[in-house]
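Q: What structure does this chain adopt?
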Amino acid sequence: MTVLDAGAARIGAHDVARSSPATRPRVMIVVGSLEVGGAQKHIYDLVRQFDRSAFGISIVVSQAGGYFYDRMRELEVPIRNLDVRSPRHLAMRLPRFLRFVREADPDVLHAFLYYPSLFACLARLLCWPRPPRLILSKRSLNLELRADRLAVHRRILMRVPDAITAVSAPVRDRCLELGASPDRVTVIENGIEWIEAPPAGRLRERLGLPSGTPLIGAVGSLTVRKRHRQLLHAMAQLLEERPDAHLVLMGEGNLRAELEAEARRLAIDGRVHMPGMLVPAISYVRDLSLFVLPSSEEGMSNALLEYMSAGRAVIATDVGANAELVRHGKDGLIVPPGDPDSVTRAIGELLANPMRAAGYGASARRRVEAEFSRDAMRRRFEEFFSNLIRE
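A:
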């Protein structure tokens, strides 16, 4: 039996009591960075709403800086920085991470994303005799894992944590496929802050477009799984019937240059705008005629929830929890993944029927308000932490 096997076998054992009524339970959140991203926005919303008199919160990051890093400092949340400068530099920082954990002596480690989760699992195994309880948050399906990462998921990430929170039922099912025990996986869905979007005009002014221009928006990292290339092809078809339409891809990523080149090849670069990361994206939502999420993989999209909450008509691919969030023909339209023709038809249908699009948007707004509030998410996590610590 290896050290990891032995450690994983001990996880079910009763731990030494770590807190008393006189002390606040301590939660240490572990994440790669606090740049703009879905996981980072989720963490920020969670921390901002936690009852800080009941829970002590601290954060460990691989790299300092970023939009949410500054927001966390404004909240006076202690942040420890591993100062990881490259993937090759990562293993050298494990001793520092273990020291951070021992010094803070958290009751709960709450880890997000791949490398932070792996570090947290190692801390759970190595910080004896007083290991923290470990929660791993899974927010994506990870359908295309490399062989080495698949092995790490099956052998460590799905076995070592005391509990795994899945952002949706499809993500929970994926965790079970990867070897997690059913009694350790709990679904806690995303919740978002209810913000009234500013009046229209900011985005069109930024892009230099006149009022009334049909504007189709997509928000997300410019990466393969977001499938922006297919959206460009759908846009090329759409412009044959709606030459007045424009597409805005809000976000950054390693595919920017390729997407710009593809837009030029399709001769639609004059109708495609990539303004980078607009923060907060909700400030620009009123200008959009509709929102499109063409991804091949989603756990539960914060961007989709935000645009639904703003009353925008949405079109999303039938992956992950999208079809659970967007009831087809009621809150928006669901299209097959990898099918630009279906995206083109859906966009054309909603642009041609603004009253129907407005009805979808109003229904989506009511749904998010009733079922996906940030307060509901925060209460579930606070209860989850408390129950885990009491075990």
